[in-house]
């Protein structure tokens, strides 16, 4: 397993959440849901995308977890949040989460971030999420993911 700071931080968070030993490093990139699904031999929908949005009114970050087979509808997301949102820049993502785009994990963030989970994630028995780098992932049930992140389940997919 790669031992970069981000990967170690996620592994420690998973251990603390009772999900230790679930991370794995893959030989190929899992930067996209399609790459991750191919590397894991699972459906693209089982891959959880971690997308960071910025609230311009407060400069706050919002982490949206969505199935790899869907797209987040920014209009629906704005309606759920009650204000406009914009896709976050790579710099903003790294500052707020401690991760680079392509390896944003839903746990082990450097600071608390409001987390929303699209209902589509709940359709699967088991899902895979980034574990701190573009080549590391961990598995969980959707219920474990909701509990681990403290996320709110919402409908924001197209």
Question: Keywords for this structure?
Answer:
single chain; 158 residues; YbaK protein; 5 helices
What can be said about this structure in brief?
This protein has five helices and eight strands. The chain is α/β, with parallel strands linked by helices.
Strand content: 15-25%
Q: What's the quaternary structure here?
A: single chain
> How would you classify the helix and strand content by structural class?
alpha/beta
| Low-confidence residue ranges | none
Which homologous superfamily in CATH is the superfamily? YbaK/aminoacyl-tRNA synthetase-associated domain
CATH topology: YbaK protein
CATH class: Alpha Beta
Largest sheet: number of strands, sense, barrel closure:
8 strands, mixed
Order of helices and strands: HEHEEHEHEEEHE
Query: Domains counted in the coordinates: how many?
Result: 1
How far apart lie the N and C ends? 35 Å
- Cα radius of gyration in angstroms: 14 Å
Number of E-type strands: 8
Helix count?
5
Task: Give helix % range.
Answer: 25-40%
Average per-residue pLDDT, rounded, comes to 93
CATH architecture annotation: Alpha-Beta Complex
Described by the principal axes of the CA atoms, the overall outline is: globular
InterPro entries: YbaK/aa-tRNA-synt-asso_dom_sf (IPR036754), YbaK/aa-tRNA-synth-assoc-dom (IPR007214)
Protein name: Prolyl-tRNA editing enzyme YbaK/EbsC (Cys-tRNA(Pro) deacylase)
Pfam family, one: tRNA_edit
GO molecular function, one term: aminoacyl-tRNA deacylase activity
């Amino acid at each position: 397993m790669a031992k970069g700071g981000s990967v170690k931080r996620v592994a420690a968070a998973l251990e603390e959440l009772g999900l230790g030993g679930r991370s794995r490093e893959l030989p190929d990139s899992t930067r996209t849901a399609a790459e991750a699904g191919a590397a894991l031999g699972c459906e693209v929908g089982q891959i959880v995308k971690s997308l960071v949005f910025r609230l311009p009114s407060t400069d706050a970050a919002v982490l949206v977890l969505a199935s790899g087979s869907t797209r987040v509808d920014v209009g629906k997301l704005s309606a759920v949040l009650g204000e406009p949102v914009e896709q976050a820049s790579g710099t903003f993502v790294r500052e707020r989460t401690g991760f680079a785009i392509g390896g944003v994990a839903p746990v082990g963030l450097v600071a608390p971030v409001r987390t929303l989970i699209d209902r589509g994630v709940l359709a699967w028995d088991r899902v895979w999420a980034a574990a701190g780098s573009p080549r590391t992932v961990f598995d969980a049930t959707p219920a474990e993911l909701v509990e681990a992140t403290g996320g709110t389940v919402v409908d924001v997919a197209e």
